[in-house]
Amino acid sequence: MTRPPETAPAVFKEPRREIESAPPAKALLRKMLSTGMLTTDPAIGKEARQPVLPRPQFTAIEADLEYRPQVTIRNVSQVLIAAAQAKALLKWRPIEAVVARVKRRKERCAGNEFDLDAARPLVESFLYLRPLFFTTKDECLFDSLVLVELLARDHQFPVWLFGVSTNPFRAHSWVQAGDRVLNDLPERVCRFTPILAV
Hints:
alpha/beta; 7 strands
């Protein structure tokens, strides 16, 4: 369970022994617990409500091994700057502060509807370039924040999602616009129950 920034932490009902036996993918959960976004104590938390979102059905960019987007030097520098920004944020700030920052920026630009056609060149560049600069294995939080930062520089604000699944417990993060997943596969993210949408 999760809470919006600056409200009481949500109660996470998984037994602590399962949390402590977490594989590397549970690092996101540990961060959220350590910063107080989640709690296992019902006395200080509140039940979280699942965000109401369209079910992910499509990828933003259809996979085509033959297709290569037109990537410019500017695209490369944009992705590198967004990656450096995301790395610094996750290293020097608690995840709660990072989420609150993204939320505040999005609220300041509340009139901006996400335009997939306008964002497509940036998303294509990101998907094409990311294997050259960083791995996405067990790095869904970083990967999603890079894309969020990249698109925000172009005044595009999709939804940044955090989700969990149980048996075994796993946590995941991805970026979505409507029923389109921007940096993952719908069949993968559908295995997770969203607990926070930014």
